[in-house]
Amino acid sequence: MALAFEPLAAGDLPLLGRWLARPHVQRWWREPSDPAAVEAAYGPLLDGTDPTEGYVVVLDGRPVGFVQRYRVDAHPGWAATVSAALGDPRGVGIDYLIGEEDLVGQGLGRRMIARFSDDCWSRYPDDDRIVVAVQQGNVASWRALEAAGFGRVWDGRLATSEPSDEGPAYLYVLDRPPPAARAARAARDD
Asked: What number does CATH give the domain 3-189?
């Protein structure tokens, strides 16, 4: 199964809005899904005023989800949250969702996270870790992170005003693997 990440485009916003409205996504990715709110939240990714990079996840030609990445220190509020929890704000942050409910629980999350993490190492060669916040109740998500090689490094309540980060959370970290380990994982995931 071919997995690709296509840069988010304006034409993808209605699809992203539909995904954000689905109950299995809305439970954890708590943000408005109406067209105006999606445009307000993701338009800055498209015009470059937000340093976050967004991608539509495509599986065998079918759009199935969304991932985004950013330097943690490019977002001062999130950098302060990560620093308060881990002691420093360095690293790359990623967020992800599977929008198509029929693909949840099929191993796609692990593949998507692992492949996107490998892509982050290429995009950010000077960063040596990826940091992900996940709600403690989102068992499928943190199991996918663990299956993709992330380790749980913190638990508690994050000091943030983001609705998606409310409640008990975990922080997971993936340290940059040596090149040989990345190549072996990429071969296994193809």
From this structure: 3.40.630.30
